[in-house]
Amino acid sequence: MDILILAVIIAVVAVALIGGLVVSTSRRRRAPEPPAAPTAEPQVGEDAAAPATEEERRTVEDVALPGGPAPAEAEAGPAAPPAPETEVPEPSAGRMVRLRARLARSQSTLGRGLLTLLSRERLDDDTWEEIEDTLLTADIGVGPTQELTERLRERVRVLGTRTPEELRTLLREELLAQIGTDLDREVHTEGGISAEGEERPSVILVVGVNGTGKTTTTGKLARVLVADGRSVVLGAADTFRAAAADQLQTWGERVGARTVRGPEGGDPASVAFDAVKEGIEAGADVVLVDTAGRLHTKTGLMDELGKVKRVVEKHGPVSEVLLVLDATTGQNGLVQARVFAEVVDITGIALTKLDGTAKGGIVVAVQRELGVPVKLVGLGEGPDDLAPFDPEAFVDALLG
Ligand SMILES: Nc1nc2c(ncn2[C@@H]2O[C@H](COP(=O)(O)OP(=O)(O)OP(=O)(O)O)[C@@H](O)[C@H]2O)c(=O)[nH]1
Q1: Secondary structure (DSSP) of 190-253
Q2: pLDDT tens digit string along 367-379?
């Protein structure tokens, strides 16, 4: 009997032990999988990570505003990357007037200098020579200086006695005549129809030597176009400096324009081609292509820019080739202009850094040199310091 009781106890203990093992094994099997490690690649669209659950979402009250107190929750967890803010740039019309004070400050030596000289009691040969020197110092160029002085001399002689208002009017008219009031200064942004019958955006190539403000001007122009209601795609075809593409992309992000870029040191023409392709697919109004401007050899530049233009033209004609020139570089700028004009058909000039020089006469000189109008002027480093060039506002700023 005792043996029987002992056998039953052993059997019960054995059953209990086996049962416990099975439960613990199955519990181990059901244990939750460790969370998958995040993938290194950023994901978009359908591949993107699932949206945050209701509990994780933050309401607008939880989001810290600039200058406001930080939400308590944000301190606890890692900060999410801030979404890029899209800005609404100010309209481009009338910018030149707003920037007149700045322009007048740097250019006043030309306008005021000329008016002072013309107001002298006696306008002898020495005074006319001084007038010529003032014009030459402002980089107007030899030909335009002689023309302007001769015309002024003649008109002052006919006028006889001169009031300051009369002198101002006269000088204004002559400066305007040199700059030209009837040139087509519009940046052309009308697209066309591609070979496949699709609507095609306008394509603008921005060329110029590095350091002239080419990338900045491309970014500012994107803002001007967005402000005027156009959609823009940017092409970072300056592949020789990764920072240039980053810089352009930042400009684009600020106004919601996508930037097409390639690998550093990649083929600029292929980036330009892809940018136009993207512009067509996205139904954009304008594609702005920032090109590289290494002037090491003319042949190198010709090969590179020529190829960019040819490749882009596979999509259709280019609307504008804008040459960016730094107004502070004087004669050097003219040499650059000449080389670029031999390489590619320039259709307009963007003159940068006009705020930092008293040499505004370069407007006249470069137009003469290339037979192409100044269409845009850079008047500062601010994002909206690019203005459509308005000769009258410019001359008024010169004369103070
Ligand atoms: N004051 C002033 N500065 C300007 C103007 N336009 C551009 N700049 C400055 O000029 C410098 C050069 O501009 P970038 O746009 O980088 O020149 P880049 O020609 O693209 O040269 P890379 O970037 O080397 O290709 C920057 O510091 C700009 O802020 C302007 O109209 N006025």
Answers
A1: --EE-TTS-EE-EEEEEE--TTSSHHHHHHHHHHHHHHTT--EEEEEE-TT-HHHHHHHHHHHH
A2: 999 999 999 999 8
